[in-house]
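Input sequence (426 aa), recorded before submission:
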Amino acid sequence: QNPGGIGLRWGADDTLLFMSYRDGFPHLYSLQHPGSTGKPLLLTPGPFMVEQMTLTPDRRFVIYNANTGSDRSDIDRRHLFKVPINAATPTPLTSGTGIEWAPVVTADGQAITYLSSGAQRPPAPTVISISGGTPRITAGERLPADFPASQLVTPELVSFRASDGVEAHGQLFKPAGGVTPKPAVVYVHGGGPRQMMLGWHNRWEYANDYGANQYLVSRGFIVLSVDYRLSVGYGQAFQFAENTGPRGASEYRDILAAGKYLQSRPDVDPSRIGIWGASLGGYLTALALGRNSEVFAAGVDIHGVHDRLPPVNALQLAHAIVGDGFTEADLRQALKVEYESSPIAAVSTWKSPVLLIHGDDDRTVDFHQTVDLERRLLAKGVKVEELVLPDDVHDSLLWQHWKTSIAAMAEFFEKTLKSPVRTVTR
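Predicted structure, token format:
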């Protein structure tokens, strides 16, 4: 299994290189003369994730990136490494506070080209010698002269524990102002098997979200980006946690823990905590507002899933839970769990205002999911605002729609969180 692309390569001397979770993390292994009785050799031992890999032209070395390094915060970054195909002796090629990915070795084998970013710098093509050294950023002049790099903050690594003891990581963005209590926002990424980072992301949609979080900080909000269970980078047990999604939404415990972590901070006003996310992040945002309006005072739900009960899933879910030979009682139990894992099951306790954003041509999460939730909330008297993106799909194709959505979110949080909402005991 490989979270970052093709995980199978042929090396020199008839050596097979592959990615596997054999030791609980996605790592590189080599196997000489496949078909023999030899055991695979773990090339990249340690509690970290190898994400992408490529071979040198002579096929005797692998260049890869991983979330590890000399700094404990490197767990939420990516750095480049070089390892021979027949020995577990990795050599770091990059280090520091940057993020590096997508390595490609030049045809002469003398250099590596890749993409890199930082907390204040968006992704840019970069070149480094095959033996390491000082990287050279190319096309740096393409960054607009008015790009506000100096106004961007550097997020810091934090962690907190859910009610069941599971530890989750997050990236905390703090505006200026010291410990004066401020409004705060939890950001929940989509997709599940993703990892947010301490800088501009290596996927375009999450790079946009990183920019949105920086924008919220510029307007005076503390932002906590959460890597909840299902996220990559923290091991197999965390990524493939039990009872997630329609099987019990156990990942929501990490979101609630993030909200309570913010409430415990002296620089956060515990009565003014919001939450936002898209897709699976929208789903968890809706769960937060429905289950724990006493923690989350407002939210922005972007094309989230709100009803986990489409009939096509019922038999699949029952079979997944109990295996072959499931009974009608098993099916009823599966449907009950699926319903209780849906935000619509928590509408009765939903009190906080919400902004719903959705493209009406979404082919991934049906637009009806938002229409149905809005109808249920309005019937209960919940304050709902809605922004429909005409003819747009799941991840907006038009940059203007991204700008419109981010601006609408910021204005919504200004209205709902910039004055004390209610008294909350820490």
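Checked by second reader. The longest strand covers residues 268-278.
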